[in-house]
Design brief:
The chain has six helices and eight strands. It is α/β, with parallel strands linked by helices and 209 residues long. It has a single domain, classed as Rossmann fold (3-Layer(aba) Sandwich). The chain is globular, with a radius of gyration of 16 Å.
Length: 209
């Protein structure tokens, strides 16, 4: 779908407030909801209301071009119509090994890849970003095309153990939220009610802390 259920929105918004990324990549941008929220809690939050004042760079990837609207042109610095794995691989080849993005958002996207390609996407997220936020359904359910978009089909199921090195939380008994560590300012965490201790770290053994 070009949108996500709202379960993870508050956590992701607080995560953006705490970490204040300077450049963001939104994979599977769809309608552009997370791009709007990212812009709101970076530039707009700091009273940079007009586009000419914006300092945060927000890029989107959306493989289905018909989802593209004037909203994307306004909110995002650039939209890329391509496969996310291919885009991240091209970023890797063209520049240094340093992370290209402070934050990559990958919300309700990874289940649309087959497992092997989804694992490749996870690896690329880790290599091309300092932090990342992923959401995916806790339980697999079939989904076919939507609005003539063949890429909306669900192709894989993901469990907590797939997100090694991430801190995970189950939301409303039906959504996995996985966040990769970022330096956390204790005062900001408290002010924005972001409770890092509610998340559990997935270790390489596949077991929870």
């Amino acid at each position: 779908m070009p949108y996500s259920l709202p379960h993870a929105i508050s956590d992701i918004c607080r995560y953006i407030l705490v970490t204040q990324p300077k450049n963001i990549l939104d994979i599977g941008a769809g309608f552009g909801s997370f791009g709007v929220l990212a812009r709101l809690y970076t530039d707009i939050w700091h009273n940079r209301y007009h586009r000419s004042q914006w300092q945060t760079k927000i890029f989107g990837i959306e493989i289905h071009q018909p989802y593209h609207t004037p909203l994307h042109d306004y909110i995002y610095d650039a939209m890329i119509t391509a496969d996310a794995v291919e885009v991240l691989e091209s970023f890797q080849k063209k520049s240094s090994t340093d992370p290209k993005f402070d934050l990559i958002l990958c919300c309700d996207v990874i289940e649309h890849f087959d497992k092997e390609r989804g694992l490749r996407l996870l690896s690329l997220l880790n290599q091309t970003s300092r932090t990342s936020a992923i959401t995916t359904p806790l339980k697999f359910f079939p989904q076919t095309g939507f609005l003539d978009n063949p890429y909306e089909r669900h192709r894989s199921h993901w469990s907590l153990e797939d997100f090694v090195g991430y801190r995970v939380q189950i939301l409303c008994q039906n959504k996995i939220l996985a966040l990769r560590d970022a330096p956390m300012d204790a005062d900001k965490m408290s002010f924005y009610s972001f409770h890092w201790d509610e998340f559990e770290l997935i270790e390489a053994s596949g077991q929870l802390d």
